[in-house]
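Handout, page 2. Input:
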Amino acid sequence: MKALILITALGLAGCASVGTDFQRPHHDLGQQWRQAEDARFAAAQDGAIEQRWWDSFGDTTLSSLLQRAAGANLDVLAAASRLEQSRAARGVIGAAQGPSLGANGSYGRARNSEQGLSDPSRNNGQSAYSLWQSNLDAAWELDLWGRVRREVEAADARVDAAQETQRGVLLAVLAETARDYIELRGAQQTLAITQQLLDIARHTLNLTRIRLREGAATQLDEAEAAAHVATIEARLPPLQQREARLGNALALLLALPPQSLRAELAASKEIPVVAMQVQLGVPSSLAERRPDIRRAEAQLHAATAAIGVAQGDFYPRITLSGSIGLQAMQLSDIGWDAKRFAFGPGFSVPLFDGGRLRGKLQLREAQQQEAAIAYRQTVLAAWHEVEDALSGYQANQRRQASLDEAVKQGRRALGSAELQYRQGGTDLINVLHVQNTLLNNEAALVDSRATASLSLVQVYKALGGGWQAFSSTSQGSTP
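Output:
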């Protein structure tokens, strides 16, 4: 008994924990992006980026949609529910660190056998008896080796992982809402341009019919002009369907029924323009900002703590328990003289389990190695994603500049071709060719503008910006 008391005292004094303490993993992210010399990017040395990046587009409708999606999206709400579940699970595990206390009471009426065990009533089974009793029980496992502390540590890390998962879902929803909105405005603008060029093509058809009546054009010219009108008309239904589909996609992101945003989005607006300069931060700040990296780190933390839990299973478990209560044959006898109590330590030691504990420890070690590899893979993938997004943004900016010039010259060519056609200086084929080229270039320019804005959304998503605007703290915390 003295030895047990001595072991307990030493354990409580040392408070050592099995396993190894978690160390934040090292990452190979540098201090400067490859595109940092581009004037369109600003690499803030403090690692900060624009948190409400959607406001930089200067579109109030876009900002409103993202604000509403953050609060109403069902995926975000489901992720928040899973976070609350992980916090509740942590509370259950954390309760093991303290003692448990319970009370119970009972009344029973019984009669023992005359030939069986001794009769508590002392009547040798001659008559029935009553038994009244109540108890107050307490138990506390002494966490001498830190096994329970490691379990709580792993639970805290799982809460952090769930929180980062929620932030990752929010970031994805914000980016998806912005993408759908930009594509919607692009579809509307392409639809408007197509309609304008359709009016021009119809004007050309009418002019051709006039020239046909005057003998200055042929029926072939009329047929080609009519076919050109029909070809442009055929472009309208897919664009209208795309506009409707994107409107419904936005409604779904906001947890609304189909067509709910139709009136709000009906008025065509310009494609949200990109910011003049983008705050990139520094590569090393990705590990502090991107939810997927933070989640991978939390999962590695949980896996590391789980090794300590598995190691703790090899050590004895010592529990202090006690019970105090009242017991009497008659209710009127319940009093201080009817008291009963029991207390003392208990312990259990694993002696032979066929290798179960050893196998469990090996499993936890292998899982920790996998989590470490997953962390490295997540960091590397994030680095690649940012580089690809930045390269795509630069390429789309260059493409847009070239298409701006192509559209400008195409409009000049169309005006000249139509004038020459009216004056008989060129044939219809040249006019239709110029119209078709301009239509393609106009559509490509709209697509380029939308793609440039979409690439900027991808840049901010890759940088991990946006969720901070809807969080009271940028760091995970466990209540």
